[in-house]
Amino acid sequence: MASEYPTRRPDALTMEVVELIGDVVARFYADYEEAAGERALTGAQARLLSLLSLEPLPMRKLAKRLKCEPSNVTGIVDRLEARGLVERRPDPNDRRVKVAAATEEGRRAARDLRESLRFAREPLAALSGEEREALRGLLRRMLGADAGPEADSPA
Amino acid sequence: MASEYPTRRPDALTMEVVELIGDVVARFYADYEEAAGERALTGAQARLLSLLSLEPLPMRKLAKRLKCEPSNVTGIVDRLEARGLVERRPDPNDRRVKVAAATEEGRRAARDLRESLRFAREPLAALSGEEREALRGLLRRMLGADAGPEADSPA
DNA sequence: TCAGTTGTTTCACTACCTGAAACAACCATG
DNA sequence: CATGGTTGTTTCAGGTAGTGAAACAACTGA
């Protein structure tokens, strides 16, 4: 699936774009952490809460989505639960599984967070509507290209 | 300098682009961590080493570049130094400061890492040269828009 | 029934990260 | 040149994130 020539160096234009993407990533990441921090959340907590604000998920699936070990999710959910942002529910179909769900307050916090992403407004504001559409198209193709590792439902 | 109406919700197109950027960020970040991991480096170690592969830097400046506390840098440099990838040198002009510098092996590791970023090749490979140029332009404008916080030299 | 599997947690361990305090070296001023 | 303030680095305590192994309960299939 991967490149046939893993050591071939990309051309200058590609390298420059990679550099720029790296900068954007750094900016976005920093802004995200800061927005989370303003709500006394860590980045990991914010990411988990964002997932749960869409739909409740069992611990196991949370771990898969966050690409980490289930034992790690336990701790993050513990801390969010202690603050009343998340709760654990039993799964009626399988008494082993605990379904983590955002509470009303948790959903509110997640919405707040999403809407406060400064990065969304400021740098993007420099682009016209047409340019944003062009950017959307390019990003979609980048992401679609290597087919996101969606090994989720066929588990 | 920021938006006048911090709570105004962005339009749908903007939100979608933000979503896509988020996805790109997640992909890039994961790939970066993985590439680092393959060389037995953590993400933080890899980022610090990348900086030092360009030029030696005093601890204080490293902290500024990494946007973290100097006390944190101490530990990361400690671990890299223990592995021979980085060394601390005295600053002839100021006996208080320690200048961290990548060793030959450290520079090699950083170059390796940079060239192995899969994200550089695969998703970008889906774009034509023209599209890459367009993307470069858009990213540049996004980053230039809010003037990167370059409070570095006037320190 | 009972062996194997799966979902969650606990535990030990490492790394990251912050803030406060210690310490050395610099610098300015009297 | 003494001395007090500042700056650069480290140490420490404390909390979060992350892994991997082991424990445990509950499910599943033979």
Keywords:
155 residues; homodimer; 3 strands; 63% helix; mainly alpha; DNA-binding; three-stranded antiparallel β-sheet; disordered C terminus
Q: Could you give a quick summary of the protein structure above?
A:
2 copies of one chain form a homodimer. Chain A is mainly alpha-helical and 155 residues long. Helices cover 63% and strands 11% of the residues of chain A.
Produce the secondary structure layout.
The structure is a homodimer of 155-residue chains.
Chain A: H1 12-38, H2 43-54, E1 57-58, H3 59-66, H4 70-82, E2 86-91, E3 94-102, H5 104-115, H6 118-125, H7 129-145
Antiparallel strand pairs in A: 1-3, 2-3
Helix pairs in contact in A: 2-4, 2-5, 3-4
The structure holds a DNA duplex (30 and 30 nucleotides).
Describe the model.
The structure is a homodimer of 155-residue chains. By secondary structure, chain A is mainly alpha-helical. Helix content of chain A is 63%, strand content 11%. The first copy, chain A, is built from 7 helices and 3 strands; from the N terminus they run ααβααββααα. Chain A has a 3-stranded antiparallel β-sheet. In chain A, strand 2 and strand 3 form a beta hairpin. The radius of gyration of chain A is 19 Å and the shape is elongated. Chains A and B meet through helix 1, helix 6 and helix 7 of A and helix 1, helix 6 and helix 7 of B. The first copy, chain A, binds a DNA duplex (30 and 30 nucleotides) through helix 2, helix 4 and strand 3. Chains A, B: Keywords: DNA-binding, Transcription, Transcription regulation. Chains A, B: Pfam families: MarR.
